[in-house]
User: Fold this.
Amino acid sequence: MAAAIGGVLLVLFAWRLPPFDTGAQSTDNAYVRGNVTLISPKLDGYVTQVLVKDFMPVAAGQPLVTIDDRNYRQKVDQALASLASEKANLANWDQQRRRGEANISLVGSQGASARAALAKAQADYNRARPLVDKGWLAPTELDRLRLAVQQAQAAVGQADAQARVAREDLASVGVSRAALEAAVARAQAAVQLAQIDLQNTAIVAPVAGQVGEVGVKVGQYVAPGTQLMGLVPQTVWITANFKETQVADVAVGEPVRIRVDALPGVTLRGRVERIGPATGSEFAVIKPDNATGNFTKVVQRLPVRIAVEPNQEAAARLRPGMSAVVSIDTAARRKAAR
Assistant:
């Protein structure tokens, strides 16, 4: 009888059935994860300096590799020279505009003088005409005055034409300003792009962390996309893949116990941070096709992200890729709800 009772209790314990149900869900399908950044250059050139070594800790913004920057410095100087030229053209436009305005004023003065001369010639002709009719003035003198009137009229027409030309010249100068301003803006953008390329010859750490194996050497020719090294940031987390039958009571915020294979005898604390939106098979490149006659049901796994609680000395020894065993205390939430 005792043996039978012992066997039943052993089965209940193995299957975590009452009274041995602790409310904990465990899995050994868990790994330490981190945002591993692959460092690559944005431009091509020969490496002049490698400033870090394998597995060296670095700070955010710390230089890692430098590329020969001589060509890029010359491009900056070239862009600055082009910008100076375009600014000179724009300054010359201001001078042309002032010259055009002065020319309009000059032509206007010439037009006023021509009209005054025409008025005088017309008045002289009008006064001389009755004198010729009375015989007091020779007809040749009237012909001379008539010719003077015609010349004054031609001078007025010429002045009016010159005024129209001056206004058209000033209008054309005004239209060209937009093109000159656009040229200056384009030259300024070229300077900024050249300066960005020059800055990119110094490859720096985007975040603080620890570099992996450094694969680049001095004198090596690199191009955009060339993998130079990996950078592992200090922040890590745990991704645990639970069976779909285990996640019914798993909720965000529940406490987690974490054991890492590389840290025997150490138990870390964590919290459920997020639960995956789909099972792992949904993210596979080739998804399983179960619409066949030989279907076999396979229990799927759902990823759960677990945040490692701060202020734990052993947490600093975690490295992405390490294997872990996690246990989520799903009973804690139910106890708090009572």
Summary: DSSP finds four helices and 14 strands in the chain.
